[in-house]
Amino acid sequence: MPAITYVLPDGTEKSLDVPVGMSIMDGSVRNNLPGIVAECGGGCSCATCHVHVDAQTRGLFDEPTAEETELLKFLEGADGDSRLSCQLIVTGKCDGIRIQVVDSSG
């Protein structure tokens, strides 16, 4: 399983083995990490799973859908590195990546 490092809102890091085919969001939620609320459960409708993904890592995932792009437009703190973690599906190439978690609880 690929090891994913979640950089949490308080700056601490947690590395988890996340199965291929699972979303970055699910990896966080199933391990009770803070920051990713995931109110819609991965339906790409609430934007409470906001993360930042660096340019190098971005290429490992599919391009954002129109729905994701629309949600990100209105999200406070969103920038060019912003993605919704429910839309980031882990592949074997994801081993060792770092995901910056934005606190979506507020």
From TrEMBL:
Biological process per Gene Ontology, one example term: P450-containing electron transport chain
Ranges of residues in domain 2Fe-2S ferredoxin-type: 2-105
InterPro entries noted in UniProt: 2Fe-2S_ferredoxin-like_sf, 2Fe-2S_ferredoxin-type, Adrenodoxin-like, Beta-grasp_dom_sf
Assigned keywords, A-Z: 2Fe-2S, Iron, Iron-sulfur, Metal-binding
Gene3D superfamilies: 3.10.20.30
GO molecular function, one term: 2 iron, 2 sulfur cluster binding
Necessary cofactors: [2Fe-2S] cluster
Domain of life: Bacteria
Family membership noted in the UniProt record: Belongs to the adrenodoxin/putidaredoxin family.
Protein name per its UniProtKB record: 2Fe-2S iron-sulfur cluster binding domain-containing protein
Organism per entry: Candidatus Frankia alpina
